Amino acid sequence: MHAYEVQPLVLAGALMVLASLVGWGLLLAAAARERRYGGARRATGRVVELVRDPGTEYTQMGRIDAGRLVPMLPRVEWVDEGGTRHTFISRIATTPPPAVGSDIPVRHLPGRPETAQVGTTAARALWFVVGGVLGPVMTVVGLVLVLIGG
Hints:
By secondary structure, the protein is α+β, with helices and mostly antiparallel strands. It contains 2 helices and 7 strands; from the N terminus they run αβββββββα. Strands 5-4-1-6-7 form a 5-stranded antiparallel sheet, with no helix packed on it. Strands 2-3 form a two-stranded antiparallel ribbon. A hairpin with a 2-residue loop joins strand 6 (about 105-110) and strand 7 (about 110-120). The longest helix has 29 residues, at about 10-35. The chain is elongated and about 65 Å long.
């Protein structure tokens, strides 16, 4: 073997360790968001319409993007603790989208209605699960491959 040859398992392991950084990044981003919203207030919002991006081909359920269905985003109306009505467009999309008129949980920072977002536990937990699995698992598997291949 020449000094410049790389073993396939070492290369695969190194790539997995590098890819694990995505998982760790997701985990850290989720933790930072939860820390930022630690003192968030909760409210119940109502879906008032489903928002379409202009210039995008749509079906009844959502838009077609690269041959797959991408859900439309709900516009949510909610009332803060002072009785003021606010609306925002959720960045969380689901298939099928929530029905217009349905209630949806909202969380926001006190006195800052522009921070409102859909506050479902499942949506928030998803990033912890994805990051918490992807980061550590890929790190361990990548390191094992590097050790075996080296």
